[in-house]
């Protein structure tokens, strides 16, 4: 049987984690700002449902990757407060994973939004 109270509590904890991510993590705020710009331009370009689904999935993937990266970094700092080469490698790999997700999101956004912008401005300047 599902314990509804536990489920609600879990969602509350997860929500607190999301709030902490955007409240305390500078990179997450940068991603939030970029996502806000992408969403604003997407409204202006009147993306269709499939395009919205793709754009929102990319935004979610970037935020999720940043959240996992932040969790890994905080865990590393807790376990090994001083400098350790293995901890540095772990943090670098985690940050690199975020960068890969961001780069793919930029490519996907460029394919969707960039082409629509190109078409819109081509018609405007013709």
From TrEMBL:
Q: Which Pfam family is one of those matched by this entry?
A: DAGK_prokar
Residues bound to a divalent metal cation: 25, 73
Q: Where does this polypeptide localize?
A: Cell membrane
Per the Swiss-Prot or TrEMBL record, the active site comprises: 66
The molecule here is called Diacylglycerol kinase
Name its co-factor(s).
Answer: Mg(2+)
How does the entry describe its membrane topology? Multi-pass membrane protein
Read off the InterPro entries from this record.
DAGK (IPR000829), DAGK_sf (IPR036945), UDPK (IPR033717)
Q: Which UniProt keywords apply?
A: ATP-binding, Cell membrane, Kinase, Lipid biosynthesis, Lipid metabolism, Magnesium, Membrane, Metal-binding, Nucleotide-binding, Phospholipid biosynthesis, Phospholipid metabolism, Transferase, Transmembrane, Transmembrane helix
């Amino acid at each position: 049987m599902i314990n509804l109270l536990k489920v609600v509590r879990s969602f509350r904890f997860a929500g607190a984690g999301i709030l902490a991510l955007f409240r305390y993590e500078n990179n997450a705020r940068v991603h939030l700002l970029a996502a806000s710009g992408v969403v604003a331009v997407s409204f202006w370009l009147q993306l269709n449902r499939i395009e919205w689904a793709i754009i929102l999935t990319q935004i979610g993937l970037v935020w999720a990757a940043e959240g996992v990266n932040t969790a890994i970094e905080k865990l590393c700092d807790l376990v090994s407060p001083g400098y350790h080469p293995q901890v540095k490698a772990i943090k670098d790999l985690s940050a690199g994973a975020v960068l890969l997700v961001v780069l793919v999101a930029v490519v996907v956004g460029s394919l969707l939004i960039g082409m629509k912008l190109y078409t819109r401005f081509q018609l405007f300047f013709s």
